[in-house]
Amino acid sequence: MKNDEDKLLDEEQWKLEAQAVINDIKDHVIDVKISDRLCNTNQVIYLNLTTLENLTFCIELSSAGFTIVGNKYDDSTNKGNEYFETFYSLLNSISLRYRNSFGNLLLEKLEKLEKLS
């Protein structure tokens, strides 16, 4: 049996972490949600993602980072890919429209700040 030092977060904390990621990127993707079919544990949680290009992925979130594990929802058969430190960097590598959407949001915020000053 593994001790508490072998895991960084408990199962509920992983869900909270995943939900925070979802809230941060939801305006820059078509759909993103926690998988309700794959086994989410205290060491890994799976997210189903549809990019603005309408590409689907299953993303694994673990202490190692974010990695694509499937090219459709609830598919974890494609393990062993590159890990990304943030979901933003993963999205940046797979979705040009994400980059544009995120960049446009930053520009809008900067323009609002400029108007306030």
From TrEMBL:
Known InterPro entries for this protein? GSKIP, GSKIP_dom, GSKIP_dom_sf
Which residue numbers delimit the GSKIP domain?
A: 15-113
* A Pfam family per the record: GSKIP_dom
* Signal peptide positions (record): none
Q: Which Gene3D superfamilies match?
A: Hypothetical protein (hspc210) (3.30.2280.10)
Similarity comment: Belongs to the GSKIP family.
Protein name listed in UniProt: GSK3-beta interaction protein
